[in-house]
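Field: sequence (string)
Field: structure_tokens (string)

Example rows 1 and 2, in order.
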Amino acid sequence: MKSRIPVLVAALVLTSNAFSQGNTAFKVPRNEWGQPDLNGVWNFASNTPMQRPERWGEQEFLTPEQLEEELARQEAAARAADERAALAVELDADLPTGPQVLGYNDFWFETQGLGENVRTSHIVYPLNGRVPAAIEGAQVQRGNQITDTPNEIRPVYFTVGGISKDGPEDRGLSERCIVGFNSGPPFVPSLYNNNVQLVQDRNNIVILTEMIHDARIVAISEKPALDDQIRLWSGDSSGYWDGDTLVVETKNFNGYRQTFSSTGKNYDMVLTEKFTRTALDEVTYEFTIDDPSTFTDIISAVVPMTKTSGQLYEYACHEGNYGMLNTLRGARVAEKNGWDLEGR
């Protein structure tokens, strides 16, 4: 296989340049040890797609005219959604949603970015802003939140949905309270709970997510490499400062999660994350995925994070959740009564 290192370097330079042309007068606040201060709760909600719509080609940023059109389109869609919700309240009934009742309505959704972002996609490499092709034989496993997805591949690697309701092992990882669907690493904006808290001291930084609850303790110093046989759900992270940017490198993933999107196993994945304070209320978060066992090229993305005054509260996903019990119980009742997916 040809070397991927030159491409990786090029992509990292490209993503770094994506925000270096911003507020050049901004002076990065520093903590008591003289390091850039990243402490706080940061929100990475976004209405920018992870993959770029093909109509934009290699265009990375929207023009002012395109931005105005896109905002108008989003506002029209939001108004239409509000009108449908208001009609449901007026009729005192749920509108048809498909073969099963959905778990959430739009009250829960957090898909509007808090800061300004004029990107056409979060993915900036490959240059078309889309996930590269998978290598031949790479596993693809998809779940469905509403209906079962026939799939003989086990165990389940994806986070949301399931392949059957025969038992908890056939449900997604987030339903089983193992990992959250947006808790990373890397962080990918999703429907809600797009928050991460960073806590620093001189030699470490804690990356805390309350989506299921995970705390990565990243040593900002030399540390022995973890034995290759020791594998973790969130991998083993180490960090260093590159100027004002915190660089976190993570490997030793356990291979029980997908590399990205619906593809691959993350056993061989090496993840590079960058956190750069670019404004008083903004951190620019970048990540690069290098997994030669899954993709033919690397993936690099840029996701803005906005500082919030809120706190993280317990997500309370645990083994005693009623949701899993009731999902399986409902399936048994449906089987006993010979009901189809519409409960008839």
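Row 2 begins here:
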Amino acid sequence: MAATLTAVRNLLSLFCLVVCGGLAASAQTAPAALTPEQAQALVERALATESQAAQELGHASHPMRYRLHKTSPRLSSTKEIVETRDGDVARLLRIDGQPLSPDGEQKEQARLDALLANPSLQQHRKQSEDSDTARAMKVLRVLPSAFLYQFAGTATENTGTVEKFTFKPNPHFDPPDMETGVLTAMAGEIWIDPVQERVVRLAGSLQQDKEFGLGILGQLDKGGWIEIEQADVGGHQWRIVHMKLKMNGRVLFKTKNSESVQDYTEFAPLPADLNYRQAIQILRSIQAGGHAAN
């Protein structure tokens, strides 16, 4: 049942891999509406583009470094993350807006030392990332058939024109597994850049409780929701820049509540052949407090 909330996260991953960027809602215009067939075709092309992009990300063909700020009811944290062919490597920089204490910084450096000394730790993380990507891809591939999409208007953004669609479960969709089964309870809205044919934003919510294993394995509660935005962060590379999640449920006999806001900033490209040891050197060049060393 780890797969239950992982499925939700990989709805993220998936929607992550499939969603878009910084939509400051503006007044909608009223162009000629797309027919249901045209709407479905545009959504399918955009999702095909996202699927291809997700596969490329999975092979780390365009690695980047970026900063992740995550806020939850319990605490907030800021990390610098470097993508490599060996998987991601992270360094914790701040907790609740404050630089790490000397003791906290020492522990973080010791963690990086252990990572250098024991490559199997990084191999395990890479395997976990690959597993998450595989689950996300599984969901991403069924999105065209899992939902019915309806054109809902066009908006003009500072990045250009985007087209909005609502989506709801397709009653004829037969989910092949638990991850894709989550989709049968979701509905929401999706925005697409019609020129680049990229998904630019998605907001979805659970319309009913979703049980797993006849309720024995667990349940996700009605009302849970996700919002994901992605954008071109340079060099025609689209990445998630903002994500919000609130999901409540149960895994076996334990209550699980997930609530967070994640912002991804300061993207910078890196060499495609970068390895995790080189990533650690980059992370260690950051001064205490999270400022780049000169």
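free_text_note (row 2): The longest strand covers residues 254-269.
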